[in-house]
């Protein structure tokens, strides 16, 4: 399969979820714009909060898909769950970092 074919399949599979992606992008853009002038240090608890949010998202993800955590058995399942955790932690960091910075 060509690279073009892979991109086409990905775009078609994302098509029903574009509105959710935009819904996630709007708060991200708003917080980035609100923290535009803040260049101070980030508080230390931000990293811990992001890790907690990532773990929480990984624990809640199977329930959102009408599954159970006990059904996560294969390597692919665990890697997908890890991707959910890392993605949620990164999104939390990007969302809260500009807001919680101390203006210097």
From TrEMBL:
This is Uncharacterized protein. The chain crosses the membrane at residues 16-33, 45-66, 78-100. Keywords: Membrane, Transmembrane, Transmembrane helix. It comes from the Bacteria.
């Amino acid at each position: 399969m060509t690279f073009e074919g892979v991109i086409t399949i990905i775009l078609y599979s994302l098509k029903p979820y574009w509105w959710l992606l935009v819904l996630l992008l709007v708060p991200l853009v708003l917080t980035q714009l609100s923290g535009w002038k803040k260049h101070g240090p980030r508080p230390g608890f931000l990293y811990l909060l992001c890790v907690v949010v990532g773990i929480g998202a990984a624990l809640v993800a199977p329930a959102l898909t009408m599954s159970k955590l006990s059904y996560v058995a294969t390597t692919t399942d665990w890697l997908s769950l890890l991707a959910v955790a890392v993605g949620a932690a990164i999104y939390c960091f990007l969302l809260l970092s500009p807001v919680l910075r101390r203006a210097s």
